[in-house]
UniProtKB/TrEMBL annotation:
<keyword id="KW-0813">Transport</keyword>
<dbReference type="Pfam" id="PF07715">
    <property type="entry name" value="Plug"/>
</dbReference>
<keyword id="KW-0472">Membrane</keyword>
<feature type="domain" description="TonB-dependent receptor plug">
    <location>
        <begin position="109"/>
        <end position="232"/>
    </location>
</feature>
<dbReference type="InterPro" id="IPR012910">
    <property type="entry name" value="Plug_dom"/>
</dbReference>
<dbReference type="InterPro" id="IPR036942">
    <property type="entry name" value="Beta-barrel_TonB_sf"/>
</dbReference>
<keyword id="KW-0812">Transmembrane</keyword>
<dbReference type="InterPro" id="IPR008969">
    <property type="entry name" value="CarboxyPept-like_regulatory"/>
</dbReference>
<dbReference type="InterPro" id="IPR023997">
    <property type="entry name" value="TonB-dep_OMP_SusC/RagA_CS"/>
</dbReference>
<dbReference type="GO" id="GO:0009279">
    <property type="term" value="C:cell outer membrane"/>
</dbReference>
<keyword id="KW-0675">Receptor</keyword>
<comment type="similarity">
    <text>Belongs to the TonB-dependent receptor family.</text>
</comment>
<protein>
    <submittedName>
        <fullName>TonB-dependent receptor SusC</fullName>
    </submittedName>
</protein>
<dbReference type="Pfam" id="PF13715">
    <property type="entry name" value="CarbopepD_reg_2"/>
</dbReference>
<keyword id="KW-1134">Transmembrane beta strand</keyword>
<keyword id="KW-0998">Cell outer membrane</keyword>
<dbReference type="InterPro" id="IPR023996">
    <property type="entry name" value="TonB-dep_OMP_SusC/RagA"/>
</dbReference>
Amino acid sequence: MFVLFFLGTNVLLAQKKVSGIVKEADTNEPLIGATVVVKGTTNGVITDLDGHYAIEVNANEVLQFAYVGLETHEETVGERTVINVSLASSSVKINEVVVTAMGLERKAKSLTYATQQVGGGELTRAKETNLINSLQGKTAGLVITPNSTGAGGSSKLLIRGNKSAQGNNQPLIVIDGIPMANSTTTQMEGEFGGRDGGDALSNLNPDDIAGISVLKGASAAALYGSMAANGVVMITTKKGSAGSVRVDVSSNTTFETPLDAPKLQSTYGAAVSGSGALAQDSWGEKISGEAKGANRLDEFFRTGMTTINSLSISGGSERTQSYVSYANTSANGIMPTNTFTRHNMMAKETFKLFDNKVTVNASLNYITQKGRNRHEPGQYRNPLTGLYTFPANGDFRQYKNEFEKYDNLKGYPVQQWYRDVNQDFSANPYWVLHRNPHTEKRDRVMASASIRYNITDYLNLQGRLNYDRIADLYERKIYASTSTTLHNVNGEYRQERDDSRQFYGDLMANFNKTFDVWSVTASVGTSFTDLKETGIIASGSGDVYIPNFFHLANGSKNGSENKRSKTQKRLNSVFGTAQIGYKEMLYLDVTGRNDWSSTLSYTPNVSYFYPSFGLTALINEITTLPEAFNLLKARASYSIVGNDMPAYITNPTHKFRNGSVDFNTSVPFTEMKPEKLKSMEFGFDLSMFDNHFEMDFTYYKTNNTNQYFSMEASAATGYSNYYFNAGDIQNSGFETTMSWRQPITADFLWKTSLNLSYNNNVIKKLDDRQDVAKENRLTHVGLGSLRGYDMRLVEGGSYGDLYSKTVVRDKNGVIQVDKEGNTLVSEDKEYVGNVNPKWNLGWSNSFNYKDMQFYFLIDGRIGGNFVDLTQATLDAYGVSQNSADARDNGGVDLGNGTKVDAGTFYRSIGQKEKGGDYYVYSATNFRLRELSIGYAFRNLLGAGKDLGVSLIGRNLFFFYKDAPSDPEVSMSTSNGYSGSNYFALPATRSLGINLKATF
């Protein structure tokens, strides 16, 4: 019915269709989003990604062409059906209007803080299943690290560094002005692995996105309150416009191959016993015959394929505008049996009533997706451990074709492998994939509605409501004869159900009026956010009665896990903002917000207030600058933003598990204070040479105090631990973006852009409590531990510092060994590096020649460290190329010419807590992130019916890297498990084709 109504609103009494291309005169670059309106009416359209438009008009009507910062142009239609125009530069470029916090519109020149906008075309040039990954290298200060778990996996976002010791460090995601729930259900934590539950942001359809704005500082995001202490990623979705019906179709297909699979040797094999059995490792003799297992990586990994198809229909009349879309995503990963599918459906409607005094917006978004065998990093239930450590002299194909064999005595198929399958480390990779399968399913509904009433031309009231519900179902089956070290001999079955429901609502009054040389823009409002999360875990992992019968009733309660959790949080707020401008050259911003958080219940600090202040001066308006300057703006801002805590710390609750009660063991924290983030920044924006050169620069510093920590409680209290506030985490640095547009000829345009950011993180204070003796205070806080490598917060250090036992060296750097050749390690753990880069950069170039386009993006990270535990294990097992090279060279050189036996050395140094700093690498890397070569066929199927074809690639190759694997690989979005690889899925290279058509 919605679609029928939508189509019914688009009957326009036009005589003919006129189409064309709108370009910028100075650069000859197509203009995206230029408006083409029939003069004197609201009948209009906007240009597409190629600057193309099509509109129904009468012969005697006049078309108005407009674009922010350029002169408006008019053309009388007459008998023409094709009208191409070029818009000249205007002195009012700096009057561009942008969307800021709470969906409020502000003139770009008046902003007192740093923002960066990315058009929707940047997200769809070379699509990814998680749209946010398409922003990598394109935004200064935004660091994106995807999980190495395959299609549908989550990504970690950081703006200006980690700020919270125990809490969330990711920015708030906002869609069309409304905060979105972006929680993850579960993540890998530790060598026992764990699954990536995905994030909410990855669910969105990239073709529905009109643009993204990144609000980097706390000042920019202050109106969103504690939810936005880490910045805001604002997503604006597409909508309909008055004019004829527009149909957009796109199809993106890419093929994925491993970019940096480990380098394995095929020279040496495993020792062979008298019965023909292979040893577990590959420290045997040279292979004299065929190395049947040499090509096992090529045999195992397949060419992945990802297809994203989308269709959208938009249009409308003067009173109603509509947008509907459908998209489907289908992905087959590089690992066999790994699949992912997603369907997105979206509908948006805008109504203008009562002579345009009332505007009503409504949208509905439904997403359903399903994944099978998404990769789980770590040592256990991981097909890569068996694949990588398999001896080169073994027959890998035998175990591929016959991964199981029926056991007449047991009455079911059992795993076939070259080693004891009851060992907890290695298993047949094909057994893991086919007999330890797991699936994830998600259904999501997002519905929103808003109404705005224009009381006068300078005052309006606005109300908005949003409902966001996510329902997840996870299922895992463990077949009998899987390692009994971790699982029941007859198999296991596990179900997890997670349900998240968020309500959001706000009510605002907005004022915007000019008084002679003064302008006043102000808003006051109130909002609420209500979040409920429920989780159910049911596991048949106890005494399973019937092998391979996967039902929760098939087993006793003994050893099984049955748990139910429920969390509810509510945040009520009032807020206000005001901006005063003087002669459009000076602007003062003031905001204030007060939050009442349920997580701070039972404390006197349940209510907390925070302000922000900002000042902008347009130097080019205040004084006369050389003619080359179009804009020179200086800005500064300061803010204090609170950040509430996880639920139930101030008043811990009991837990119910397996029919019994787990009583609370934490002391109620009735004195808890919210985290307090103090942020300051200043910078400038510059535009020169008729806006051909643009630059912005920002310096910032943040201090996040009142962190919350936990320590062991005195036995006299009756509790095991207690919480307290302490600490100060500081981030400081700068961001800059520079771009240049150079017309080469009338038909040839080159545009280049460089973004660069630097961040320095310091733990200024950890436990600074004055009422506690120094010897009783915290010395460090552990964030995560993986095979002997600990991520710790230590006063004076930085977030992401790694500690482990280190290889003993003398003053000349020579490795010390015992008389058997085993490496010596330190008794205590020492600092070995930090996982966070200091510098991030991205350099993009686009070349447009007539209807042909060429684009590439190079990005890099400088500084930081990366721990490759996969390499350590492969060295220890003797399957790495390193181990073969050492044997060929007569042993491992300790650094002074002395060589020791390769087998003894690598067996020793590759063990848990033995490698220390030996397997810590520089994380510095530079790569060709994105490439696109395309051509637009104009009017191919008739006037206004275009077809664009592009060859695309992502993550194509490294210009430089030190680590054996991709140092940007992440096993988890959790705070303590980045910067390491332990049998994670290799990064992939993708090549493909992108088709898009407009009708």
